[in-house]
Structure prediction request, 239 residues.
Amino acid sequence: MECGSCHDLARHGLTSPTAYNCSGCHHASAAAECSSCHGDASRLQVRYHDRAFDHAAHILRSKLPCGSCHPAGNPAAVRVDCMGCHHKESEKSCASCHAVAAGMLAGTGAPGGPGKASPMANVACVDCHGRPPVVPAEGGCLDCHNAGYAKIYGVWRKGVEGNYRKLSIKVKEVRELGLPLEAVTVDGRTGREVVEQAEADLRWVGADGSWGAHNNSYPNAVLQQDLEALGSLLAELGE
Prediction:
């Protein structure tokens, strides 16, 4: 394929192709099966609205065709009106779909064990998210709280994301050592169990996706506990 097929050579290739440009070739045939290029789409790892998008839930469990979210005329685009399918049943419990978030509020559910419930645990979900539910604006706390809360979510988020990032780096550091972890113990757990616990807690925090809004103290306590255990493990390994 010639460079000019994607780039504007008149401007010395300074234009970058977009997903819409790609559709001219990649999605030219509406008859082509998505799986012919994308394989098992249920395994695709993507992020949407700053959180992991669960392709498996849509494709395998809900049996939705790709066209439900990706328009046939331009499959590279994604649907923005998720509410066309979600949240139609107003009487349905939020926790029936958002179990991790519900647990986070209650101070339960972390693989690393229970913790302190959020001060917001008894607040109805719709009081912050509205109906139909949306991600609250960062300054949304001021709808109920005083002006001192104007920037508090940014502080919470910085703390949780900071510990999440530190733990991710620590886990990678231990994994890259390539050392046998079964022979080393930390507080009665093998090194392998310590690492797997940390990885499970990272997935749990990521699955909640609120980065401190649902509960500020609980995820920080869990992540900090894992950081300390991995620090002890690295010390036992002589690193």
Observations:
- Residues 160 and 211 are 6 Å apart (CA to CA).
